[in-house]
Design goal:
Helix content is 42%, strand content 13%. With 367 residues, the protein is α/β, with parallel strands linked by helices. The strands form 2 sheets. It has an 8-stranded parallel β-sheet.
Length: 367
């Protein structure tokens, strides 16, 4: 698949394919390395790892491949919007804890996260790309990444966000369409319901508008599951495609089997944006927890805590559900292309994606 872009010239990739960073354990070292060995870019979602764990995961990847890989962190957590009463949220999830045999949940505290130490560990880990989401990386952190020679990528859900990233010296903009699974990367303006709604722009519409607005390379993300989608975003001006859901059903992915099966069984109309699991809007497969926590008659702003408190509150429930194979209590992050999910090895998936992309481009040329 001949492409002459930053992906090949700087990173030495054979294919314009990026495995999305998936914080929470989906992107195991085995997955990241296998993607890299197949000629694409594997990525580590490191936000929920301690600095020492970041060192260990990066070392595990390097032990399996000499190919480049990426690492991702959420930007430093913003201050919480004033005092928060956790009682309604705790009461709302307590019956689910009891059902899984867990003690009654305690009011959560903000997780102890040392972003600077995480960043240092990430930069020492041997990654070629550092990416970030949930906002703008602080200037000091951007300078540190640049000084270490890593390619710097940031997530945008609107043109204005992409322009802000370019002005800040970011090397690559990841355009996240509304079809994407997992958390929304929206960050411009006050982060209220209206802001996230305004950032729900489909990949097909978002990518060419960002390409037209910035001079830096653009990677498309959101709903891309096969080579036809990759060919489409290349035609729209992107230099590559970032896929997350497609890699979650790979043999090397670290999510529970119940999660993988939920993706393989899901239809395109069965995902929804929810705050129920983490407190921040994210797209996942609708399950019992989403339906029963976010119900029309319940005041959401009282029953769901802001991120990262809600994430901390529900983590023990999700951990227990994973061990018990209870998909109805898992955060089943997935994009709208779920019907196209396939169960295979990461190497086979990358090869298939490359083959499909070439076939789609040849088909267009033949018309």
């Amino acid at each position: 698949m001949p492409v002459t872009t930053i992906l090949t010239e700087t990173l030495g990739l054979q294919h314009p394919i990026i495995q999305a960073p998936m914080a929470g354990g989906g992107d195991t070292p085995a997955l990241v390395a296998a993607v890299g060995e197949a000629g694409a870019l594997g990525s580590i979602g490191a936000t929920y790892l301690t600095p020492q764990q970041i060192v260990e995961v990066c070392a595990a990847v390097r032990a399996k491949t000499q190919r480049p890989f990426g690492i991702n962190l959420f930007v430093p957590d913003a201050p919480l919007p004033g005092p928060v009463d956790p009682s309604p949220a705790v009461a709302r999830v307590a019956p689910f804890f009891e059902e899984l045999g867990l003690p009654r949940p305690e009011p959560p505290s903000p997780p102890a996260r040392d972003f600077d130490a995480q960043l240092d560990a990430a930069l020492d880990g041997g990654a070629a790309v550092f990416s970030f989401t949930f906002g703008m990386l602080p200037a000091a952190a951007r300078d540190k990444v640049k000084a270490r020679g890593l390619t710097l990528a940031g997530t945008a859900t609107t043109v204005d966000e992409a322009i802000a990233l370019e002005r800040a010296g970011i090397d690559i903009v990841v355009a996240q369409g509304s079809e994407a699974g997992g958390h929304r990367g929206t960050f411009a303006g006050p982060l209220d319901h209206a802001a996230f709604e305004a950032g729900m722009i489909g990949t097909l519409a978002l990518v060419p508008q960002i390409v037209d607005a910035v001079r830096v390379p653009v990677i498309a993300s959101g709903g891309i599951m096969d080579g036809r989608g990759i060919a489409a975003v290349l035609a729209l001006g992107a230099v590559g495609a970032q896929l997350g859901t497609a890699f979650l059903t790979c043999e090397e992915a670290g999510v529970p089997d119940a999660y993988k099966q939920a993706i393989l069984d899901a239809h395109e109309d069965q995902t929804r944006i929810t705050r129920a699991f983490s407190g921040r809007p994210a797209r996942g497969i609708v399950n019992r927890f989403m339906r029963e926590v976010e119900v029309p008659w319940w005041p959401h702003h009282f029953s769901v805590l802001p991120f990262p408190l809600q994430n901390a509150l529900t983590r023990p429930l999700r951990t227990a559900a994973a061990k018990q194979g209870r998909a109805e209590f898992l955060s089943l992050w997935a994009g709208q292309g779920v019907r196209m999910a396939r169960r295979m090895s990461a190497a086979d998936l990358v090869a298939k994606l490359a083959e499909e992309t070439d076939a789609a481009i040849r088909k267009l040329h033949a018309r």
